[in-house]
Amino acid sequence: MRHPPGDYDTSRIGEDPEVFEAFYRDHVQAVLRYATRRTRDPHAAADLVADVFVAAIAGAHGYRAEYGSPAAWLHGIARNVVASENRRAARARSAESRIAGRRLLESEDIARLEERIDAERACRGLLEQIAALPPGQRELLELVAVDGLSVAEAASVLGINAVTARVRLHRARQAVRNAPAPSVDGDSASSHRSLLEAS
């Protein structure tokens, strides 16, 4: 059902897509005007408009008519979004000014970063395998293999006895070993195997 302008409950824009569509139609031009007064970059303006409506959806449950018209409420949100973006940009400029004139990364630094990125990519494959385990096994394996807890410590965290924990851990490691392996280089594969070694 297409709502006439203003004929909807603003507090429901986060729950009802049709209500949000009507709200968006009513106010998008005003928000766009607000955004374009604050930036000359059309992409930045579009991002700002999107951020304002996302924030409105998130805060819609708290909207009350006594706070003012929906337009006033939305402009208050827009003001907060702009202020937040300005603070973020100021922090970025401050960070850039602090590193200005500092030594740029050298080739060996870049090589180390590339190695780390490759290792992180490989680890993501292993973490996906762990995520596919049953919850009890997954939690235990994460506590031991990822967080570095002992089996006894992990058992205490999960409220189970150490024998149950060891059985569960053995099953989890076996399941990950038997899963199709992610494509990794030799060093990463060795690192992955070490995560699955018995404690």
Please characterize this protein's 3D structure.
The protein has 8 helices and no strands. The protein is mainly α. It folds into 2 domains: 10-99, Rna Polymerase Sigma Factor, Chain: A; 107-195, Winged helix-like DNA-binding domain superfamily/Winged helix DNA-binding domain (Arc Repressor Mutant, subunit A, Orthogonal Bundle), CATH 1.10.10.10. Helix 1 packs across helix 3 and helix 5 packs across helix 6 (151-158). It is extended and about 65 Å long. The N and C termini lie far apart (61 Å). The model has no long low-confidence stretch (mean pLDDT 80).
Map the helices and strands.
Elements: H1 17-36, H2 42-59, H3 70-99, H4 107-131, H5 135-146, H6 151-158, H7 162-178, H8 186-195
Mean pLDDT: 80
Structural class: mainly alpha
Q: Which blocks of ≥5 consecutive residues have pLDDT under 50?
A: none
**Percentage of residues in DSSP E strands:** under 5%
- Using the coordinates shown, work out and report the CATH topology of the largest domain: Rna Polymerase Sigma Factor, Chain: A
H and E order: HHHHHHHH
Number of discrete domains: 2
What is the CA-atom radius of gyration, in angstroms?
Answer: 26 Å
* Helical coverage, percent range: over 70%
CATH class of the largest domain equals Mainly Alpha
Biggest beta-sheet profile: none
- Assembly state here? single chain
The geometry reads as extended
Q: What is the annotated CATH architecture of the largest domain?
A: Orthogonal Bundle
Question: Termini separation (Å)?
Answer: 61 Å
Total of helices? 8
Number of strands: 0
